[in-house]
Each structure stands twice: as C-alpha cells, then as structure tokens.
Amino acid sequence: MSASPASRPHAARNTLLRMIAGRIGAAFLTLILVSLVVFTISDLLPGDAAQEALGQSATPAQVAALRHEMGLDRPAYVRFGSWITGLAGGDAGQSLVANMPVGEIIRERLPNSLLLAALTTLVAVPLALTIGISSAMNRGGRLDRALNVATLSMVALPEFLVATIAVLIFSVKLRWLPSISMLPEQATWGQFFETFAMPVFSLCVVVIAQMARMTRAAVIDQLDRPYVEMALLKGLSPARVVIRHVLPNAVGPIVNAMALSLSYLLGGAIIVETIFNYPGLASLMVNAVTSRDMPLLQACAMIFCAVYLLLMLLADVTAIVANPRLRSA
Amino acid sequence: MSGASLPTAAPAPVPAPATKRAAFPARALRWTRRLPLSGKVGLAFVLFWLVIALIGPLLAPYPIGAFVDENVFSPASRTFLLGSDYLGRDVLSRLLHAARYTVGLGAGAALLACTVGTGLALVAAVGRGWVDELLSRFMDTVISIPSKILALVMVAAFGSSLWLLLLIAGLTYVPGNYRIARALAVNLNQMDFVSVARARGERRAYIALSEILPNMLHPLLADFGLRFVFIVLLLSALSFLGLGVQPPQADLGSLVRENISGIAEGAPAILMPALAIATLTVSVNLLIDALPHRGRN
Question: How does DSSP assign B117-147, residue by residue?
Fold first, then answer.
C-alpha cells in the first residue's frame, strides 16, 4: 500500500474496504465450516435413505443398487464436495419425499417467510427502539424498572403461549381474526391485515423484548461517557443529547442487536408458522425432519445459517462504517 | 514475583468472611430478604416448580393415563381442578407428571451444557496456543447455527428418545456457555495468584480446577440459569412440534400439542401447560436478573 500523507482520504477508504473485505471473507469461511458441520451431523444417520425408500422387505442387493444410483456409496468427502458445489450453483438436490427438486419447493416457500419477517421487522424495530431508549433515559426510574421486568418476562415466554392467547382473544372471544393464516391470491388490504396480524404480533413479542434490552444496554453504555455530561452541562436537553450525540455512537451495538433478533425471524418462526398454518420455510423444515428428507433439511438449515451470517456481516459492516475513528483512520 | 518463597501469599480462591458465618437458614433468609420484589417472586416460583418436579406425581389426584371424564375439554371444576383434556383425562394429574420431564430434562441438559462448555473453556484458557485456537474456531462455527435449527438437524439424524433429547439440547448450548466461561477463565488466568501458582510449579489441572474454576462459579451459576431457560423453551418447542418427548411420556410442551384442538373452546387443557412453562422460564429469568452480583457490573 502506498499511503502517502497527501492522499489521506484515499488511504482511509482503502483501510475501510480492506476491513470490510476481511469480514466478508471470514463470514464466507464460517459458512463453509457450518456446511461441514450440518453435513456431518445429517450424514451420521444410522439407516440411510435407500433403505428407507425401499422399506423392510428389500433385499440387500436392491438396497445396494439404489445406494449406488443415489450416489450414497461414494466416500463422505466426495458426497460433501458434490453437495456443496451443487448448493453454490443453486441446485440443492432432489427431495426424497416429494420427488421434486429441493430448489423448487424452497422457491415456493421462501417469499412467504421473507414477507412475514419483513412485516415483523417493520413493526418490531421502531417499537423496540422506543422502549429501549425511553427506559435508558429513565434509568433506575419506575418506568425503567417496569419495562425491565416486562421485557425480561417476554424474553422467556414460549411462543405458543403468546400465539394461543392471541387466538383465544382475537379469534375465539372477539371473533375479529381468523385463527389460520391463509392469504388468498387477490387479497384486499383488509384480508392482508387479517392474515398477518396475529403471526406478526406473536413474533413481535419475543423479538421486541430482546432488541429493547440490548438497545437499552447500548444507550446506557454511552450515557456514562464524559461527552454526554459535557453536552448536558452545555445546556442541551436530554432528548437532544440522546438523538444527536448518543445514538450515532451507539449505532454499532444497536444494529448488532437488531441483526441478532431479526435472524431469529426466519428459523425461529417455526412455532408461529405451525400454529397459524402459515406456509413458510420453517414449517417446511419441520416437515423435512418428520419425514427425514435429508436434502430438503440440509438446504433449509443452510439457508437459515446463511441468513444469520449475512445479517451479522451487515451489522459488522454498519458498525465499521458508522465509527468515525475508523473512517478517518 | 518470587512465588516459591511465598507459597501462602496466593489469595484464597474464595475470600473467607471476617466473622463467623451464621447458620445456613439465617443466611438464606437474609439473602432472600435482600432480593428485589421481582427476584422474590422468581425465587418462589422456582422453588415451587422444583418441589412439583420432585413430588408432583404423588400429588396427582388421578392416575396419569386414566380416562376419568365423560366429556372432553371440560372447564375447571371441583372434580377436575384444571379441567379435562382431549381424551377426557385429568389435566392437573398430567401436568404434575409432565413437569418432572420438563424440569428434569431442562436441568440435566443445562448441567451437561455447562459442564462440557466450562470444561473445554478451562482447557482452552490454560492450554492456550493451538488448543485454544482450534476449540474457539469450532465453537464460533457451531454458534452461528441457530439453536433450533441445530437441534432439528440433530433430532432428524439421531431421533428423539429421552436420553438423546437431553444430549441434543445440552450440546446445542455448549458453545454459548463455552464463550462466556472462556472469557472469564482467560481473564482469571492473567491474575497474579494464578501466576504464583504457576511459578510454584502446580500442574495445569490443579490451576484450572483449584485456582480458576472457584472464582468463576458465581457468573457461571447465572449462566446455568440462562441455559436452563433456553433449553426448557427449546425442548417445549420440540415437543410442541411433535419432535421432542414421545408418547406415552409427555412433557409440558407435549401437553400443549396434544390439546391444540381445544383452542377454539378456550380449554384450560391447552392454556395451563403453556402457562406452566411460562411461569417456570420467566421466574428463573427474574431470579437471575435479581442476583446481587449482577448489579455490580
């Protein structure tokens, strides 16, 4: 690197780019290691797919023939290689149960999951920020303590309790909402709302609590710094101090908290999707476990892990970009 | 520092109290009184569930599998305190039996997660070098697999007998405990009293178990509680999906699952087990949050 003093902004940009490239590389490496773990665990299966497909009455010769046809008799590292290159090229193999390409099944379900996650994000993030920041600003006060106990309890609630109570209140007692979330082809706004109100609500309860707690911690960490005291002594209002001075400095940890909670929305939606019969990716994965459809299971697991790593990467990069010390280094 | 000439200079792992300790009940009472209200409520519920897990089946008014009600999903009454379930069995009796599975599996798996996680963390912290590097890389990899997904893959691969569930839930949360225990152990490993022990020529196992471990017990206890909450939620979720505890055995999550058709009637059969899980997990969470050493951080 030729970083002469004259070209400082250029050098700074280079450092930034190099840091981001490093994070991307690390995330990619982790993804490959994760795929190795997922493959190893699901490969330890005692009986294999060929045996399962042919049933008890199959002769050993038949099983061996099918094993050969399915490529199960190759050594594990060869199978891992062909599986991972297939995944990278978008071909996740053939579902053992549905007898169609895994990619096709997933393509049908993934948009549903993303839609549910996006809607939940839209509702949860502003609420979580509001709760987190207001309890940080009232630290030790009555509001803060009440919110602390509330979020602490919400974190530990099982989702099916939240969903069940929501169904009891809104479908059974009030008869406002259907207890099954099926979106018709041409939905009106009203139907759209009816479909998503309860799943989104149930997911929000858990996610908001986590995000709010971490936001509070991040803001409080900043409130203890001398620059906040300085700003307050200068005569700025607490609200202005938080919005103009504290929040920009707390962006890193807050975005990290958001990413961590949001990564939960795809894989963690399992319960909510099951209760409301919502055709998402997580319930697909549960079906894959029940029917031991390994290619489908592996593909779903990899999608969830990839999304998790992607969100963590985004949070990391945001934190790097948002930190002025790194920008002008 | 000449540790060899001053073997007794190393501070005792646990600082001895200046005055003679009061008897256990008195100390426990004082400790309880100092907890905030949320902590007291949490403690009360935790003790309640521990007792239920221990003697619950003895309190059950009816045998666990007996069909005692002619109606299904009947509401709470004097004969059936929590109503009856989808087959006309007594919900209270089934709940008292199921609590044992939920609490027992949760505590067992949390113990497993903490023992393995902390054990490996001590090996990493004392061993340093490539041992530490290898273990930490591996744990970082596993931790980036969402826990429910990891557990589902393992259930699909191995099945879900009680022992397997305990093993799966425990292993799923090993990396989380490892991360915390390693951070604690690495910090302690740099303390003077550990240097002294090392200069004295103590073996690594002694340093890990007698010098480092006793000093991290308090935060580890809090982490144990947290793992317990996660694991109870995970196992209940698995049972709710039909992938956890298999019939005829049933934990609280299974009870919610088998009575799901009662939701339209608002039957206590579905609400009560779900509420039971919630009171268990929420109260552990409240208790951990109220523990005194947390306030110092």
Answer: HHHHHHHHHHH-HHHHHHHHHHHHHHHTS-H
User: Which among A33, A160, A300 is the nearest to B256, CB-wise?
Assistant: A160
Angle between helices A102-137 and A294-322 (to 10 degrees): 40
Q: What is the pLDDT of residues A87-139, one digit of tens each?
A: 887 777 777 777 788 888 888 888 888 888 888 999 999 999 999 999 988 88
Q: Which of B156, B265, B285 sits opposite A289 (nearest CB)?
A: B156
Per-residue confidence band for A256, with pLDDT thresholds at 50, 70 and 90: confident
Residue B109: how many CB atoms within 10 A of its CB?
26
Collect the ranges in chain B with pLDDT lower than 50. Answer: 1-18, 294-297
pLDDT of residue B2: 37
What token pair was written down for A60?
């050993």
Other CB atoms closer than 10 Å to residue B157's CB: what's the count? 21
Suggest the residue from B35, B45, B73, B141 to mutate for an interface test with chain A (most A CBs closer than 10 A).
B141
- Give the domain range for residue B272: 36-69+82-295
Is any Cβ of chain A less than 8 angstroms from the Cβ of B134? no
User: Phi and psi for B35 in degrees, rounded to 5?
Assistant: -70, 150
Q: What span, in angstroms and rounded, lies between the C-alpha atoms of A285 and A298?
A: 9
Using a CB–CB cutoff of 8 Å, tell me whether A168 touches chain B: yes
Half-sphere exposure of A12 (CA within 13 A, CB side): 14
- In terms of Cα–Cα distance, which of B182, B186, B207, B209 is closest to B197? B207
pLDDT one-digit tens code per residue, B150-167: 888 888 888 888 898 999
Transcribe chain B into DSSP letters.
--TTT-GGGSPPSSPPPSSPPPPHHHHHHHHHHHS-HHHHHHHHHHHHHHHHHHHHHHH-SS-TT-B--SSSSPPP-SSSTT-B-TTSBBHHHHHHHHHHHHHHHHHHHHHHHHHHHHHHHHHHHHH-HHHHHHHHHHHHHHHTS-HHHHHHHHHHHH---HHHHHHHHHHHTHHHHHHHHHHHHHHHHTSHHHHHHHHTT--HHHIIIIIIGGGGHHHHHHHHHHHHHHHHHHHHHHHHTTSSSPTTS--HHHHHHHTGGGGGGT-HHHHHHHHHHHHHHHHHHHHHHH-HHHHH-
Domains annotated on chain A, with CATH: 7-44+75-327 (1.10.3720.10)
Residue B19 and residue B58 in contact, taking contact as beta carbons nearer than 8 Å: no
DSSP B39: H
A34, B240: Cβ pair inside 8 Å?
no
- Looking at the domain assignment, is residue B8 inside a domain? no
Cβ-defined contact of B242 to A271 (cutoff 8 Å): no
Domain contains B74:
no
Are the beta carbons of B243 and A156 separated by less than 8 Å?
Answer: no
Query: Which domain CATH number covers B278?
Result: 1.10.3720.10
CB contact under 8 A, B154 and A160: no
Task: Supply B223's token pair.
Answer: 């982490």
**B102 part of contact set with chain A, CB < 8 Å:** no
